[in-house]
């Protein structure tokens, strides 16, 4: 535990914390900057861990319980590290009607994970999103941050097989 | 920046484009981009350069041209005006080659088709025409002239009167009269300042109208917000955008920066004493933050939990100050209304629903994408003419409007004119504009369950009727879906619908039962079949144990 007064120290020496510091400073280190700050952490490190939450809490002078409450309230934030590759299947109405469930099932069949889970070798995380706004191209899937439309089960398998030859990701 | 300077920029931009005999415009909004339209644009530019045609042919990135299903879309203008569909980088050479000759037949998308010809564009008039990343291009088509007109020749009250005359109603879904809302905020005391907020948290699954406007014509929204801020007396503005729309966020940030540099935003706008600073705030994946008080809570750095109203945001909103919140599409209508007058706008649409509406047509229909049509057009025209009908010779079953707060409209109402009142009269709502077409392959019990699942996970948890009610209703719908329910379960479901609707704190809970109520009203036989015969006709639901015992018991 560090004393409350004075500038808090980042959880590690990782220089990327400077990006987060800059984001918080840009919003005047105000309590209202909480969501923007959490976005900055997740964008930089891929997820929010306890150290990060405590650091943001101290920097913005917001109770840790509140920071925890906010980060668990919003679906966009994740408190678990993601796999090397992420696959977000949109499960909005248009995509659902056009068979998004089948795409989810394809991943489950091949890798045994359900939405929200990561494979044991940390290669792949399967997630769902409520709607990514690409309804004209339903069903849509976001592969490693890039939106793909009119995705088929075959297309899913093709994407997954692309990197199955890679060495397993190290945690 | 005054009117003369603005018109000079417009003239310069026109002169810069004039020498080009040919223009090739490539859609660079999110959907086409995901089909690699950026590579198409690069290929076209490379081909033009290789042929030494850079001085005769301009390749330009533009916003959404509407027919997402046929993307990437490329429009060629020169000797002929042709829309090309499903363009790949390999087609670049053929397209450039064809500019002086006949169009490339195999890629042509006829502009006379109802999807294009049947639209009336106000909100989307610049979408697909201008480069969304250049403010000069927005100015070329008259951008920011309405702002200057308002600031230099109209008083705030006159601006509000024009909006009131137009009959514009909030396009976010509730349809509250915009002029009235502005008037309320204007009247509120301004001692500590006021805010204008743009609700760009387009959370309805199946809706992507706002996304397109933000990506294709961001300045239109900024101009609308600035005019609104002037009218109500606000100097600070926020645009609350979903985190799921990174391209929209980027284009907005760039647009704000460009606008400030030119003096149409920021301090002393257009050499007047009016100042407005606009900032972006990101959402984080909470549907409830589309509700105005939850949105405000989110900007304040809290969980997105709604507050009881009154007091309304117009009186006490962001940090307790009077706040005007309007939807993206609402703001996008303002500049044309100021330019052409409220009376012009009121001349379009129906008696109580003026103007046009942008709809996101999706689901089991041929032409999925965005359309902007006058209020009063029929559902049949939308689905079967502009939409191109149901593919694979399937039969139309219902069209779902208004997202998770809306209802399903069956075939017998297809000839109903679309406006706020008529949709409400059949148990649905206009909503933000999402329109999902369903055919016989959809099971309406499953659809109701899908929406209830959505509301259940998106419920903020603050009030019991919604937090517990949606869970309970979802369990009942699951039970029905699995073929394990009794008639008493259906009765309980109906009672819960009424309870959740009438006692929830905010719009999410209040409208969560709508899909259930609507499907029960028009597709009760499907529920009955699941209960009585343990059967799902559409073949969607997984019945746990098909039973013969209850077959023959009448409801």
Task: Report on the architecture of this protein.
The complex is a heterodimer of chains A (171) and B (555). Chain A folds into 2 domains: 17-73; 85-162, 3-Layer(aba) Sandwich (Glutaredoxin). Helix content of chain A is 41%, strand content 11%. Chain A has helices at 17-26, 34-45, 50-60, 64-73, 93-97, 100-111, 153-162; strands at residues 85-90, 124-129, 141-143, 146-148. Chain A has a 4-stranded mixed β-sheet, with helices on one face. In chain A, a hairpin with a 2-residue loop joins β3 and β4. The longest helix of chain A is centred in the N-terminal third of the chain and has 12 residues, at 34-45. The mean pLDDT of chain A is 89. By secondary structure, chain B is of the alpha/beta class. Chain B has 4 domains: 12-115, Glutaredoxin (3-Layer(aba) Sandwich), CATH 3.40.30.10; 142-345, NADH-ubiquinone oxidoreductase 51kDa subunit (Rossmann fold), CATH 3.40.50; 354-439, Ubiquitin-like (UB roll), CATH 3.10.20.600; 454-532, de novo design (two linked rop proteins), CATH 1.20.1440.230. Chain B has a 5-stranded mixed β-sheet with strand order 2-1-3-4-5, with helices on one face. A 5-stranded mixed β-sheet of chain B has the order 11-10-14-12-13. Chain B has a 4-stranded parallel β-sheet with strand order 8-7-6-9, with helices on both faces. In chain B, α3 packs across α4, α7 (145-153) crosses α15 (334-340) and α8 crosses α11 (218-232). The termini of chain B are far apart. Classes of the chains: A alpha+beta (171), B alpha/beta (555). Chains A and B meet through α2, α4, α5 and β4 of A and α2, β10, β14 and α19 of B.
């Amino acid at each position: 535990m560090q004393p409350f007064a004075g500038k808090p120290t980042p959880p590690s020496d990782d220089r990327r914390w400077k990006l987060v510091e800059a984001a918080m400073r840009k919003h005047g280190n105000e309590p209202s900057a909480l969501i923007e700050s959490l976005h900055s952490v997740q964008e930089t490190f891929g997820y929010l861990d306890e150290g990060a939450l405590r650091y943001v809490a101290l920097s913005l002078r917001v109770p840790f319980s509140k920071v925890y409450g906010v980060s668990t309230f919003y679906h966009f934030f994740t408190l678990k590290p993601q796999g090397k590759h992420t696959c977000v299947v949109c499960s909005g109405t248009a995509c659902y009607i056009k068979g998004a469930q089948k795409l989810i099932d394809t991943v489950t069949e091949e890798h045994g994970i359900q939405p929200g889970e990561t494979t044991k070798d940390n290669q792949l995380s399967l997630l769902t999103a409520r709607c990514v706004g690409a309804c004209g191209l339903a069903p849509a899937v976001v592969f490693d941050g890039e939106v793909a439309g009119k995705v088929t089960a075959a297309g899913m398998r093709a994407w997954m097989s692309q990197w199955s030859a890679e060495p397993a990701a190290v945690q | 920046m005054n009117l003369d300077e603005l018109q000079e920029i417009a003239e310069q931009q026109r002169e810069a484009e004039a020498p080009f005999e040919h223009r090739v415009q490539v859609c660079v909004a999110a959907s086409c981009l995901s089909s690699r339209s950026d590579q198409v644009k690069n290929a076209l530019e490379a081909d033009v350069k290789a042929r030494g045609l850079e001085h005769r042919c301009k390749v330009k990135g533009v916003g959404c041209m509407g027919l997402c299903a046929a993307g990437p879309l490329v429009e060629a203008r020169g000797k002929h005006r042709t829309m090309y569909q499903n363009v790949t980088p390999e087609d670049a050479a053929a397209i450039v080659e064809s500019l002086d000759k006949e169009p490339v037949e195999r890629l042509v998308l006829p502009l006379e088709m109802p999807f294009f010809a049947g639209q009336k564009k106000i909100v989307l008039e610049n979408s697909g025409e201008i480069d969304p990343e250049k403010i000069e291009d927005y100015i070329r088509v008259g951008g920011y002239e309405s702002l200057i007109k308002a600031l230099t020749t109209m008083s705030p009250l006159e601006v509000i009167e024009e909006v009131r005359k137009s009959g514009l109603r909030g396009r976010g879904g509730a349809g509250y009269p915009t002029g009235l809302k502005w008037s309320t905020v204007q009247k509120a005391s301004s001692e500590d300042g006021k805010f204008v907020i743009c609700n760009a948290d387009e959370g309805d699954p199946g809706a992507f109208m706002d996304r397109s406007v933000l990506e294709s014509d961001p300045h239109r929204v900024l101009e609308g917000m600035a005019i609104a801020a002037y009218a109500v007396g606000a100097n600070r503005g926020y645009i609350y955008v979903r985190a799921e729309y990174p391209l929209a966020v980027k284009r907005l940030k760039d647009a704000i920066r460009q606008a400030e540099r030119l003096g149409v935003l920021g301090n002393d706008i257009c050499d007047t004493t009016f100042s407005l600073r606009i900032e972006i705030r990101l959402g984080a994946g909470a549907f409830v933050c589309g509700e105005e008080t939850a949105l405000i809570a989110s900007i304040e750095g809290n969980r997105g939990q709604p507050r009881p109203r009154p007091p309304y945001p117009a009186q006490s909103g962001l940090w307790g100050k009077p706040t005007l919140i309007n939807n993206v599409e609402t703001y996008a209508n303002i500049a044309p209304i100021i330019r052409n007058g409220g009376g012009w706008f009121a001349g379009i649409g129906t008696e109580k629903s003026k103007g046009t509406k942008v709809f996101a047509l999706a689901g089991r229909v041929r032409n999925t994408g965005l359309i902007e049509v006058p209020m009063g057009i029929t559902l049949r025209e939308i689905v079967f003419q502009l939409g191109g009908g149901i593919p694979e010779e399937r039969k139309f079953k219902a069209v779902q409007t208004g997202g998770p707060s809306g209802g399903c409209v069956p075939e017998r109402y297809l000839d109903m004119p679309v406006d706020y009142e008529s949709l409400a009269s059949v148990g649905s709502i206009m909503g933000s504009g999402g329109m999902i077409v369903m055919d016989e392959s959809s099971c309406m019990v499953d659809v109701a369950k899908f929406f209830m699942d959505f509301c259940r996970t998106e419920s903020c948890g603050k009030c019991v009727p919604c937090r517990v009610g949606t869970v309970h209703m979802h369990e009942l719908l699951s039970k029905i879906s699995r073929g394990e329910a009794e008639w008493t379960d259906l009765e309980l479901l109906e009672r819960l619908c009424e309870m959740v609707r009438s006692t929830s704190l905010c719009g999410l809970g209040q409208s969560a039962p709508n899909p259930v109520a609507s499907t029960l009203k028009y597709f009760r036989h499907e529920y009955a079949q699941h209960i009585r015969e343990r059967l799902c006709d559409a073949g969607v639901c997984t019945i746990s144990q098909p039973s013969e015992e209850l077959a023959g018991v009448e409801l």
